[in-house]
Amino acid sequence: PLVVATLAVGAAFAHHATSVCLVPASLAAVLGSPLPGRRRTQAAWLLAAVALATVPYLYLVERSYAADPPYLEARAHDLGQLVDVATGGPFKGHVARLGPVALATGRVPWLLGESLAGGAWLLPLGLLGLLWALARPARRVLGWFLVASALFLLLYDVPDLEVYLLAPYVALAIAAGAVAERFAAKLQLRTGRTPAALVPPLLALAPLLLPAPIEPVEMGRERELGLLAALAEVPRGGAAIVLGHDDGLAVELLRHQPPGAPGVGVLVVPREALEAPFLLASVGRHLAGVAPLRLPPQDRALAPGAPLFLLGASDDERARLGALGYATAPTGDGRPSRFVRGPRSVPPLAFVAEAIEPAGPVDVALRRLLSDDFDPSRTILVPGAEARRSGGGAARAVEVAPDRMRLAATVAVGGGWLVVQEPLRARWRVRVDGDDAPSFQADWSYPAVRLSAGEHEVELERDTRPFEWARWVRSPWGYLVP
Hints:
Layout: H1 2-10, H2 16-31, H3 37-63, H4 71-87, H5 95-105, H6 108-117, H7 122-134, H8 139-156, H9 160-165, H10 167-191, H11 199-209, H12 221-231, E1 239-244, H13 248-255, E2 265-270, H14 281-287, E3 294-295, E4 300-301, E5 308-311, H15 315-323, E6 327-328, E7 337-341, E8 350-353, E9 355-359, H16 362-370, E10 379-383, E11 388-389, E12 393-401, E13 404-411, E14 416-420, E15 428-432, E16 435-436, E17 440-442, E18 446-451, E19 454-462, H17 465-477
Parallel strand pairs: 1-2, 1-5, 9-10
Antiparallel strand pairs: 3-4, 5-7, 6-7, 8-14, 9-11, 12-13, 13-19, 14-18, 15-16, 15-19, 17-18
């Protein structure tokens, strides 16, 4: 019952880091439960089996599917949320991440009010569960959770910000487990049978009984209907650009399209792009015909020349996009407006960096990327690297397709670093002159490879098998492992 209760609580959340924390949370609940020694051992073995069955899915998701949005954009979003809460700014985003900040700044009543107004009723319950856990011997459960979470941080490379901010939800799972234990005890007294037989049917029926695991972070019902109506007007083969903060918004819009709707794409661009134009570079390259636009939620790329439409933007946001060189055809009544042109100059698809700088904390790195004296076409930020310089060079795209790229690079004496300015993550195989080559991430988002002096042909080929496997594993268990 502890395992089932923990999984049921976790299934209500959308963020994939919550899924990664389900196993250590369940382990903590089992090890800290009042079960007899033998029963506790049996439950631990059952949980180990669940964990082993979940490991392939977690690996595929973390490395291919849910980790697809650019890491830098996600970290900028997290930082903006924390600053908003600490300074009294507008509420937006996952309340689970904001709880400790509210506690530290004394803004708990405000956070609880916003949570209830937004339908996030689990957060106040989680805080109550946390108080309950701290006031009882269940404190050892939280200790086991921290230990197990630390192991998972090492195994799955989950951002450290996520796991500790989920403590209220873990406490709620503990409280739910305690209730399940008492209910199970009463059930055993009445029937003389163990409720363990209920576990398989509950797991099988969970996708039908539980609500959808993915909910948009910032989209109310009125805005959802407006965006869906506008999306219905986007012609087949085109794509809709929505200013937002979470890729779940694109997934939600695609999921709620009516049957027979035209095959259109959706790309959520972070609102920070209005101040940081490099986040719009992929849109600009598509409008300029330099490279196809990739759509992470659908795992595909638009055909060259496919039309793009702006959805749900305010007049002020349209004006700010226009100031950046992105002009849209004027429309009214919330209808989609087509992009008619992009900026005159866009960042190249690939370049040879001349210098590497060590990347510090996220907030420091973001300020460095946006500073006036930083040239992103010459310098890259690499975590843990030493400051180095090279002779530079030049790069050009020879072939660009949705699943492969072929580039030609000329590197000066001393070597250099070829950087592809597309958030490709770790799903591409890199070859240099026909041989496999190790790559690394530049600016948290872009693949880069070290090249020696001379002329080189670099190929990037995408492997779509992880996506196919992840989707196969996800159905019908996507509700248990969001």
